[in-house]
Write a structure and sequence with these properties.
Blueprint (H helix, E strand, L loop, with lengths): L2 E4 L10 E4 L7 E5 L4 H21 L3 E6 L2 E7 L6 H6 L9 H11 L8 E5 L5 H9 L2 E6 L4 H7 L8 E5 L8 E6 L2 E6 L22 H15 L5 E6 L2 E7 L4 H17 L3 H4 L9 H11 L5 H4 L17 H8 L5 E5 L7 H7 L3 E6 L6 H11 L2 E4 L8
Parallel strand pairs: 6-7, 7-8, 13-14, 14-15
Antiparallel strand pairs: 1-2, 3-8, 4-5, 4-6, 9-10, 11-12, 11-13
Length: 391
């Protein structure tokens, strides 16, 4: 098969639409559903991310994509804790390592992952399919599916859930092209390999970079390789916990990703884990309620009678002081940036979210200022020499 007709392009008015190969056969097979233009952009970008994460770490990997950027990405590292399971809404579920990787990826930013495209580095097993069946998701790409997994996924969304199988041995041409306004752009595809060897040029006084931090920095950098630029990624425990994508300013990327990372930690606060949800309430409703509860304006949920639609009793607010105290405990977070930090303000913001390890290309005329800011807080920073813009 060399061509696949699509329902429409990015928008319904953009018809006709298709994907096709200039030579050879398509590396994907549609096993169920009818994927759209954006679905396939998500599928092909997310597959590259999880494939590289698996190659770099040796662990099953998963990603949750929305609008051609990851909302989350993770490897199956240590088994999920009871706190993890509660925060990811997977209590009582049988989880394979691959399912745990997807639970982590989806758990990075569950609100943004609503209606995601899932990517799996390994053949989808029954446990992962059962987890996908519980979530609001548009589709999944994987190198294979067990019979039981395929049976489960074909029933999702009244039989319309998109299931794509990709040839894991497929290798694209060295050069890639795209047309913009009738003009064809061509470049060598970004086949730069990302692994711990990029982290040897440590430019700060503190040069203690543990293996766990190397894993997290590699996870962040591979995630950034497939995130719309400018982009910054916070990571801990083998998973991205805050991704700032598509911002024109580097500091805005750092702030956005830092806020998401803070929210990831706040969702583990005892008050959040103990919220008295009504039995059987939908997962997206819980996600949105938690998001508002930990926000700066919880009265949107707790004021008046709105809480009655979600909780069995009105919960006590999570105060500003409680949030500050909880986040003050956070440490050991890693941060990757797809391009250099132009000012030390990025480091100042990052350390407020527990960042102790940074990887960025370097090359700013203010590198000395950025290094000095890291040294002020004992942060370890490596210059990778590799920019990771993605557009």
């Amino acid at each position: 098969m060399t061509e696949l007709e699509l329902k429409y392009g990015c928008n319904p008015n953009q018809k006709p639409a298709r994907i096709f190969m200039r030579s050879g056969a398509l590396p994907i097979t549609v096993l169920n559903g009818r994927p759209g233009y954006i679905n396939l952009l998500d599928a092909l970008n997310s597959w590259q991310l999880v494939k590289e994460l698996k190659e770099a770490t040796g662990r099953p990997a998963a990603a949750s994509f929305k609008h051609v950027s990851p909302a989350g990405a993770a490897i199956a590292d240590a088994p999920l804790t009871g706190e993890d399971k509660k925060a990811f809404f997977v209590e009582g579920l049988a989880l394979s390592p691959l399912a745990e990787a997807y639970a982590r990826a989806r758990g990075a930013d569950r609100v943004s992952s609503y209606g995601d495209w899932a990517a799996l580095s390994d053949p989808c097993d029954e446990e992962t399919a059962r987890l996908l069946a519980l979530e609001v998701s548009d589709g999944v790409i994987a190198p294979g599916y067990s019979e039981k997994a395929l049976e489960i996924l074909r029933k999702k969304r009244r039989g319309t859930y998109c299931v794509i199988q990709i040839d894991p041995d497929y290798r694209p041409e060295l050069f890639e092209r795209k047309d913009v306004f009738g003009v064809t752009f061509e470049q060598r595809r970004n086949d730069a390999r990302i692994d711990a060897s990029l982290l040897t040029n440590i430019v700060t006084k503190n040069k203690d970079l543990p293996e766990s931090a190397k894993r997290d920095l590699v996870t962040a950098l591979i995630t950034l390789k497939y995130t719309q630029s400018n982009s910054v990624c916070y990571a801990v425990g083998g998973q991205a916990i805050g991704i700032g994508a598509g911002q024109q300013s580097r500091i805005h990327c750092t702030r956005l990703a830092g806020t998401k990372a803070d929210n990831w930690h706040l969702r583990r606060h005892p008050k959040v884990l103990a919220l008295p949800f009504i039995d059987g309430i939908a997962r997206p409703v819980r996600d949105n309620a938690i998001d508002v509860y930990i926000s700066d304006d919880p009265d949107e949920l707790l004021g008046g009678d709105a809480w009655r639609d979600v909780f069995t009793a009105r919960p006590e607010p999570l105060t500003k002081e409680e949030k500050i105290e909880w986040l003050s405990r956070v440490a050991g977070v890693s941060l990757g940036s797809d391009a250099f930090f132009p000012f030390g303000d990025n480091v100042e913001r990052a350390r407020k979210s527990g960042v102790m390890y940074i990887a960025q290309p370097g090359g700013s005329i203010r590198d000395d200022d950025v290094i000095q800011t890291c040294d002020k807080y004992g942060i370890v920073m490596a210059f990778t020499g590799l920019r990771l813009f993605h557009h």
